[in-house]
Amino acid sequence: MMRCLSRWITAALLWVALASLAHAETLAATVEQWGLLGSWSVDCALPPDRDKGALLMYEISKDGRVMYRRNFGEAKDESEVVSATVNAEGLLNLMVFFPSLHQTREFGLMLQKDGSLRAIYNRSERGEYTIRDGKYVKTGAPTPAQQRCD
């Protein structure tokens, strides 16, 4: 009985490990195939700045995780992308855990015909939007296009 239970536990642990590895590979493949990897900014010629354009980087770490790094000049942070899906219209839906904010945020990105990137939505896990339909909720201004910097 104990030997059988031990085998089931070992099999279950192996299945969990393989499922986690497969998820990481799928996540990395999704962002890579979509074209997200690299550095993005509103103006790549300017140094990173919170008001004039942060440098946003999406990378696959050595351990296979997809990382989102933000450089605001005076401040930098690093967060993990925990899921990525692409919908029928080509919108990349990301969920990112921000340790500094103690929250997960979901945002949608769209590649434009000219190769630039635009944020279409950004919301907290409670459903509070900062960007909706490609516009900032507070001002109604459209989100700026980000250019690839690398």
Structure description:
The chain is α+β, with helices and mostly antiparallel strands and 150 residues long. Helix content is 22%, strand content 39%. A 10-stranded antiparallel sheet has the order 9-8-7-6-5-4-3-2-1-10. Strand 7 (117-124) and strand 8 (129-132) form a beta hairpin. The longest helix is centred in the N-terminal third of the chain and has 33 residues, at 2-34. Residues 4-24 have low confidence and may be disordered.
Question: Which labels suit this protein?
Answer:
150 residues; alpha+beta; 10-stranded antiparallel β-sheet; 10 strands; 22% helix
Q: In total, how many beta strands?
A: 10
Strand percent estimate = 35-45%
Task: Characterize the overall form.
Answer: globular
Residue stretches low in confidence (pLDDT < 50, at least 5 long) are 4-24
State the helix count. Answer: 1
Distance between the termini: 59 Å
Rg, alpha carbons? 18 Å
Topology:
Blueprint: H1 2-34, E1 38-41, E2 55-60, E3 66-71, E4 76-86, E5 92-98, E6 103-111, E7 117-124, E8 129-132, E9 135-136, E10 147-148
